[in-house]
Amino acid sequence: MAALTGAMVGLATLLLIQLILFFQWVGYGDASEIRYAQIVAARPAWQVLLVMGLGGLVLGVLMQFLPGRRYHGIADVMEACALNSARMPVRSGVGAGLAAALSLGIGAPLGREGPAVHIGASISAWLAERLGLPHKQSLALLGCGAAAAVAVSFSTPIAAVIFALEVIVGYFTLRVFAPIVIAAMAAMLVREQFIGHQVQFPVPAHSVISTWELPLFALLGILGALLAKAMLSMTGQIEQGWKWSGLPRWCQPALAGVVIGVIALPMPLILGIGFEGTFLALSGVLTNPVIAWLLLAKFVVVCLAFSSGFPGGVFGPAVFMGSMLGGLFWVLLGFTGLPLSEQGVYATIGMAAMGSALLGAPISTVLIVFELTRDYGVTLGVMTAAAFASTVMQTGTHGSFFRWQLARRNINLSSGRDISLLMTHRVEDLVRTGFLSVPIDITTGELESRMGQERQRIAIFVDEEGCFKGSTNLSLLISHAIEQGLDSKAIDGALSADYAITAMTNIVTAVQSMAEQEQEFVPVIDRSNPRQPELLGIVSKSDLLAEHYDVIKRARAEEFGIT
Asked: Span 537-546, mean pLDDT?
């Protein structure tokens, strides 16, 4: 299944790449990822503005038909893993892929990894649902889809595996690691069959001239995190500006597209995924003013694109802005007269800083940078910057761009994985018969006497046909006796028949039902005949909490490789 998932997602990711090129060809008459800026620069200004504006309008209308009327990306995959038992609708994956292809094709300054991962996760979730796989296997298969998408999108199989484990699945074990590796391998075979396995940024090998530069690399990591935080803040402020304007959501991408086009006219390198600009920064051939203007312009258009709803990922902008930040940092350090490594060294390390901060995945980022550049001479610098950037990012409210997106939808993943796991465990094995079954016409005094004689604290009311009618416990019964007297009907002070669950109810729902009624038990019934619900037994709060503990304990043992 892992190999099949990897191959299917690999083909889907290649299709996404071709769709991006197709929309680029439709808009500008030519298509190439590595010559995007050259193609746009050769077109008249009116054509660029028309493509960006009209394309944005089509996107705005298209997204009205997507679930939630918005683009779905990696944050939604994380939500599915943590809260939805690794289940995702295929419709959102197809729609998000089409919207992202159009967005990146017309020149949105965003990345490709977000839509690719979402498509891969949607495919794997669909397979898991069709096959009826349990939670653990569904989660592993979702990781397979994410890894395959990243591997094909950037030709980075090792980083793809770690990214799936670090960001999507959330833990490392052999049971999950092995199938994800197999999926990434299958996806890479598909990529090599169609487009080859070339390095994304074939820059000359660099080296750090002295370890005394490590504090400078740490400072660069901190600057990368601060720039990432500024990007999140600015994006949020522009979103508030859109809301304040009162403009319909569907027309915002069109207006933003025109503004992005105007900014990009003198600097076409900021459009699209940004491979050209990143490569020039890593090669150290950009002049000092150009680096500063490109960094500022990319920052503005990325915030504008995200806030207006343009579909796309964050890793493309991260490596572009990171490389520019590193190059600019090198320029500023040059005024100190200190002996420094080449500008390309700082540009590469800047990539790691921004990538680690925005992805919230320092291990994956380090590996991605190495696989994108094959430049291992800057290992210490890349690791230092990634570590400091990630640490600074964690000091804030949001540890990554994806968690920031989820927080804006009031979604907290801190305990989500445990809840998702518990929702897959039903109460059917916890049903007990430690209760007293009584007729509905029994008086309070009679029931109190029987409960004392038989030493039972819970009583269930059933009619002559054995249908469930309600429940009570000793505490409720005593309160009813004080208020209404011992001759009153006991069922008048009981919990209604609506307070009950079925054997298929999950642990989380059962605990919530008890909490709402402030009870230590809940009846379990068979509702196959709604008019005559049949009593199966009860579930106690102590049994539910014990099962809760065992489930989480087993999950933690598996995550940490304890057998």
From this structure: 88
